[in-house]
Amino acid sequence: MWFIGAGPGAPDLITLRGARALQTADVVLYAGSLVPEAVLEHCRPGVQTVNTAALDLNAQRDWYARALRHGWSVARLHSGDPAIYGATAEQMDLLRTLDLPFEVIPGVSSFTACAAALNAELTRPDVSQTIIITRGSGRASPVPEREALGLLAAHRATMCVFLSGRQLETVVQELLAHYPPETPAALVQRVSQPEERQHRATLGTLLDGLTLSEWALTTMVLVGGALGEDLSVTSRLYDPQYAHRFRRASDPETDAGSAP
Ligand SMILES: C[S@@+](CC[C@H](N)C(=O)[O-])C[C@H]1O[C@@H](n2cnc3c(N)ncnc32)[C@H](O)[C@@H]1O
Known about the structure:
- Belongs to the precorrin methyltransferase family.
- InterPro entries: 4pyrrol_Mease (IPR000878), 4pyrrol_Methylase_sf (IPR035996), 4pyrrole_Mease_sub1 (IPR014777), 4pyrrole_Mease_sub2 (IPR014776), Cbl_synth_CobM/CibF (IPR006362), Siro_Cobalamin_biosynth (IPR050161), Uropor_MeTrfase_CS (IPR003043).
- The structure is a single chain.
- This protein is α/β, with parallel strands linked by helices.
- It folds into two domains: 2-105, Cobalt-precorrin-4 Transmethylase, domain 1; 110-227, Methyltransferase, Cobalt-precorrin-4 Transmethylase, Domain 2.
- It has helices spanning 16-24, 57-70, 88-98, 110-117, 149-152, 168-175, and strands spanning 2-5, 27-30, 48-51, 74-78, 103-105, 131-135, 158-162, 184-189, 197-202, 219-223.
- The strands form two sheets. The protein has a five-stranded parallel β-sheet with strand order 3-2-4-1-5, covered by helices on one side. A five-stranded mixed β-sheet has the order 6-7-10-8-9, with helices on one face.
- The protein starts with a strand and ends in a 37-residue tail after the last strand.
């Protein structure tokens, strides 16, 4: 049994290991609300696919128990990386009670795919070296009060807010408690999929002119100084004067005029 990170949706953003596991699975369970059917192209012909969107944990348990009885190999596809808001811990507990061994295959999380789509590095020297991954509070998974957005915002780190498309006004308002309104911010929806769209602005103007209902689903909010495009800060890593184990510092006298 495998838990497989499907990546953000483009079929070629799953890992090779994940695709190989899908090719051998007899049954594939996938969260159809987030994993596009296009990713199922990696499955072998005739495989049994089950959309888990309508299944509660007991119904999923039945599938696992049936697979165990018949000796079927099962792949469970999760959007992005299974370790992030995947509700995988409860399934792992379930599999342990069934004595069904499993392996987790990581995936490209949507937050890194969003950074790629924005051509952004989320960690910039002297701007932010920290990424906060958090979410809007939900009925099924309330966020602990000590992790309220307004508190996390005090760090002014790069922040990626998952699962918050239905609460964009609240999210922006809470972030503005600490981030200055001119902080770069972006919304990215269905990144890597044919319907992908992105919207860049400052935090203070992020929602101006948007039809918010259009951004309710599968949207990531990114905020932080690192998203700015006009930063003059650079890391010391490629500074010619910066020596490290794999490169000596260049000597401006002797290296002058040498070939590139
Ligand atoms: C249940 S979480 C799953 C996160 C997933 N495990 C990951 O690592 O990306 C669903 C949320 O992830 C974000 N998300 C997932 N896929 C996305 C995509 N293709 N584009 C933008 N955001 C996405 C959205 O915030 C969405 O509400």
